[in-house]
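DM from R.C. (forwarded with permission)

"hey, sorry to bug you on a friday — could you get me a structure for this? deadline for the figure draft is monday and I only need the backbone to look sensible"
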Amino acid sequence: MTRLTNANLERLAPEITTPRYDRGAVSAGIVHIGVGGFHRAHQAMYVDELMNRGEALDWGIVGVGVMPGDRRMQQALAAQDHLYTVVVKHPDGRREARVVGAMLDYLFAPEDPEAVIERMADPAIRIVSLTVTEGGYNFHPVSGEFDLDNPDVQHDLDEPSLSRTSFGLVIEALARRRARGITPFTVMSCDNIQGNGEVARKIFTAFARARDAELGAWVETEVPFPNSMVDRITPVTTPADIDELADRFAVEDAWPVVCEPFTQWVLEDHFVAGRPAFEQAGVQLVEDVVPYELMKLRLLNAGHQALAYFGYLAGYEYAHEASADPLIVDFLLGYMTHEATPTLAILPGVDLDDYRRTLITRFANPEVRDTLARLCAESSDRIPKWLVPVIRHQLDSGGDIHRCAAVVASWARYAEGVDEKGAPIQVVDRLKDELMAIAARNHDQPTAFIENRELFGDLAENDRFREAYIKALQSLHAHGALATLKALDG
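My reply, with the result:
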């Protein structure tokens, strides 16, 4: 067994791909906030690929953890020189193991916010990127406005040098660069949010304006916030993944990351102080990300939601198990073909029929072992952004919405916190208590869940949606998930 460190790279098994560059020659150019599995299997991997080609050696990544739970990741990576293993799981059982060396450091903001701020204020840092999840942008799910009443936001407005949030840290760093006459960095969101760059611009600018009107105006006009579309299924790393890496490849890695073979990144080419040559690593640099983004959000991300609750309620644990059920597959394809696709623009060179079939294949990869519980988590940050826009488009155009309504009903049924066998469901959501309290009224007041205007706006007032939703919810209660799916497409 070989522990993963710089000193031990040459001792690793030959089938493991390791950095072909001198890590000592790499300097930092990117600070990334929110170092999770996805960033490590996606953006950092693209940078590492460029470095293996002898490019981008001045674009090393400094990770930043803002949440208390990030301390564990920081410690794990620091102990192995910020190296980690990406394990690609192929459907036929093959494994590809690759050590990524693009990350140079990991700073834990709660421990030393000043160190984080000054690192971002360094002229060498030209990009600050983000994967802070949908809930990390602190905006209202319906209005989209920044929540200035958040206690941590108020703290950061009062004590900028002791910031607790990504907003406070980034804006303080930008304020220092402005005061020192240093070009600002580009803020690059890599989160699954429609118009993620525009959302980031709105949110960070709102914070900056609340702090100082002139600073806010400077951020709005001088700081680029490129939109991007990112895609790679990256399940949470489990103890079994760590053990398998040790057994198959004799590597001791405290926190590897596992993922599917597929990866895609479509990025708006809008940067103020340069960027790595991402296109050489397979990134699509485009003028307008929105059509690609909507394709992914409404087919893949919303498709995951269509799969997750019905699959979980039907007794499945993993996405690949649910994706092997013909009733669920037919429902998924029906949603994607008849309800989501009509909301999308034509993309030159993209075969949407092939894309839909590819998604089913990806969902059905038995080696990824993506849990339905993960896909069901944080639904209040997902359904309003991914599925509700499809519903509204279809209602406005007179299109089909009964499958969308059924997905919402399956979420409401899931939020009751008890599965079809009477076992408890561990609901994971920032609005857990509120949602479960509302879902408890599903039997007596079947529209209670969709009357939550924070999540659904006025959808409960639309007769066609309300009737389709009630029908699906009542069927879920009376007949169960699979029988409901059979009736929907029967």
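R.C.: lifesaver. The chain has a mean pLDDT of 95.
me: no worries. The longest strand covers residues 28-33.
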